[in-house]
């Protein structure tokens, strides 16, 4: 066989062998690939299953907070004074939003979150994963943004505080900030009790960040506890209306009213002017936020005289019928001349209160040991907080001196040189009405009247109340405080307003403090009219009528039976007394 024929014979055999090898190589390659895939599948499905499942979950599952509802504040009859309503808060993940800037154009012209505003916020916090966009939105407002489907924008449910009575209860109830943390009033004083504990839940979100399924409740939210106040919203409205009317009518810069339950020490009403609306605090004057009845001090003037007389009675120095010579209508004490409205001559102790004689009370104070009157005022709560748990409450000013000058003792007897709040003064009169016992004041509803502690004897307290009835009588200085059908006991006061430069010559505060019904007092109230117009500023003119209307309404609302069925007509012309 020739060489060419042998070569031709070998080529097909070699070709077949190479083809077989290639087939085996391809088969081996695919077997290796299949083996790798099987190994990888086993690795993914078995070895790394838990890890990968977790990674998938954290890209779709989210743990979200559950907002806790803040406790409700109610009046003594269950009427809501502060409630929390659900609102929607929009937030963004800037890192996610920056990856989808082409989607921002959807926000152009949006009334809640405009594109330009959104871009500024996101770019300013590009490294963060959470920023607030808008808080406290109504559901329809939030939906106008969420429906656009802009990546990186999410929502959560929060609560917003709402105050149904608005300005009427603002100084007592106070308000919270946007995070529902108490800032003023009861909201601050009882913040721990009102604040709930937030919960947590696990949810599934889609690619647009929308919650598509609640998976698991990890921890339920615990709502805050409710607080039931001692306030009666009916009396609060009445006090608010009458005080505001008086402030406007007499051109005053402000005023306060406090109404107490004599037996329980509960604060039934507490209002101030000027006020504010806690539901809309934009542009509010910070001075309007003060609860003046508990924080602002004033010299009580002649409303202190009953306690001077009480000190003298407790010492056994006088009786209501003891005669005191006030002639010639003034008294020189050191460098100061103390004057009455006119010369009352020789009058008894009862008439000292009826006519509000400065000379008479000065003589009583000067005839007793110098420490007796300050100690008595301290026992009535002057110079110390009432303990009502109101934020910022002032303790007042009651001087403590080892040695008192005569002029200081005299001035103290008719209410100068001592400073009180309206709340303190109301507490002192409540002690007189409670047969000389002092009970703790309370801003929350009291189920049972406390026993209290004795301050003065029952007979002394009853005698003072009887004497104070004459102040509202025909010859007294507070005829306008009368309440048809009820006996009223009380005292007027008119004091020069104390400023940074001393006593203002033509600026005053008109005060009335009283009790009703006088035969068995249930209500103690104090009315302060601050800086009324010069044409009418006496306590008997500006404050006493406010007391009459408010306390009369309170007695009727509390179904207190009249103790003077024949009645008198309130608002008769004022008597000649002016203090």
Helix-strand blueprint:
Elements (H helix, E strand, L loop, with lengths): L2 H45 L1 H12 E6 L6 E2 L5 E13 L1 H5 L16 H10 L6 E7 L1 H8 L6 E10 L7 H4 L11 H5 L1 H4 L4 E7 L5 E9 L7 E2 L4 H17 L4 E8 L5 E7 L18 H4 L9 H10 L8 E3 L4 E4 L2 E4 L6 E3 H6 L3 H9 L5 H8 L26 H8 L8 H12 L3 E2 L14 E2 L3 H14 L17 E11 L2 E15 L6 E8 L8 H4 L1 H14 L22
Parallel strand pairs: 2-8
Antiparallel strand pairs: 1-6, 2-3, 3-4, 3-5, 6-7, 9-10, 9-19, 11-14, 12-13, 15-16, 17-18, 18-19
Helix pairs in contact: 9-19, 11-14, 11-17, 13-15
Protein name: Peptidoglycan D,D-transpeptidase FtsI
Function: Catalyzes cross-linking of the peptidoglycan cell wall at the division septum.
EC number: 3.4.16.4
């Amino acid at each position: 066989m020739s060489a060419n024929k042998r070569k031709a014979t070998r080529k097909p055999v070699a070709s077949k062998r190479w083809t077989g090898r290639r087939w085996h190589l391809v088969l081996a390659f695919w077997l290796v690939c299949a083996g790798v895939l099987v190994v990888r599948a086993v690795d993914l499905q078995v070895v790394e299953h838990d890890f990968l499942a977790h990674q998938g979950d954290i890209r779709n599952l989210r743990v979200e907070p559950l907002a806790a509802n803040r406790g409700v504040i109610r009046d003594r009859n269950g009427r809501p004074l502060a409630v929390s309503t659900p609102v929607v808060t929009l937030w963004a993940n800037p890192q996610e939003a920056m990856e989808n800037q082409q989607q921002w154009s959807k926000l152009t012209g949006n009334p809640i979150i405009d594109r330009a505003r959104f871009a500024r916020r996101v770019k300013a916090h590009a490294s963060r994963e959470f920023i607030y966009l808008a808080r406290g939105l109504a559901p329809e407002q939030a939906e106008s943004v969420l429906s656009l489907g802009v990546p990186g924008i999410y929502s959560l449910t929060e609560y917003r505080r709402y105050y149904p009575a608005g300005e009427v209860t603002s100084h007592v109830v106070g308000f919270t900030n946007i995070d529902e943390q108490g800032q003023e009033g009861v909201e601050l004083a009882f913040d721990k009790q009102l604040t709930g504990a937030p919960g947590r839940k696990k949810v599934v979100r889609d690619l647009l960040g929308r919650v598509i399924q609640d998976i698991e409740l990890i921890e339920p939210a615990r709502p805050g506890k409710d607080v039931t106040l001692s306030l009666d919203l009916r009396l609060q409205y009445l006090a608010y209306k009458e005080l505001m009317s008086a402030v406007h009518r007499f051109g005053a810069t402000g005023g306060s009213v406090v109404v107490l339950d004599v037996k329980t020490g509960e604060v039934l009403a507490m209002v101030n002017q000027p006020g504010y609306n806690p539901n809309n605090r934009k542009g509010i004057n910070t001075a309007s936020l003060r609860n003046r009845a508990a924080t602002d001090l004033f010299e009580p003037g002649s409303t202190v005289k009953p306690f001077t007389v009480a000190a003298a009675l407790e010492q056994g120095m006088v009786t209501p019928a003891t005669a005191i010579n006030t002639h010639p209508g003034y008294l020189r004490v050191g460098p100061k001349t103390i004057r009455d409205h006119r010369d009352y001559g020789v009058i008894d102790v009862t008439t000292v209160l009826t006519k509000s004689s400065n000379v008479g009370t000065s003589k009583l104070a000067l005839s007793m040991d110098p420490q007796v009157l300050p100690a008595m005022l301290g026992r009535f709560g002057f110079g110390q907080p009432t303990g009502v748990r109101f934020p910022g409450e002032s303790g007042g000013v009651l001087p403590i001196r080892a040695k008192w000058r005569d002029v200081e003792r005299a001035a103290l007897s008719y209410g100068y040189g001592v400073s009180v709040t309206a709340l303190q003064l109301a507490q002192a009169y409540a002690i007189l009405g409670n047969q000389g016992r002092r009970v703790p004041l309370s801003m929350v509803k009291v189920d049972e009247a406390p026993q209290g502690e004795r301050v003065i004897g029952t007979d002394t307290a009853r005698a003072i109340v009887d004497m104070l009835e004459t102040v509202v009588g025909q010859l007294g200085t507070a005829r306008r405080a009368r309440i048809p059908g009820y006996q009223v006991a009380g005292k007027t006061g008119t004091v020069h307003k104390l400023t940074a430069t001393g006593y203002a010559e033509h600026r005053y505060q008109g005060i009335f403090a009283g009790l009703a019904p006088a035969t068995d007092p249930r209500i103690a109230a104090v009315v302060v009219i601050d800086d009324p117009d010069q044409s009418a500023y006496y306590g008997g003119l500006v404050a006493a009528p406010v007391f009459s209307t408010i306390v009369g309404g309170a007695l009727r609302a509390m179904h207190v039976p009249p103790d003077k069925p024949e009645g008198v007509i309130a608002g008769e012309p004022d008597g000649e007394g002016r203090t």
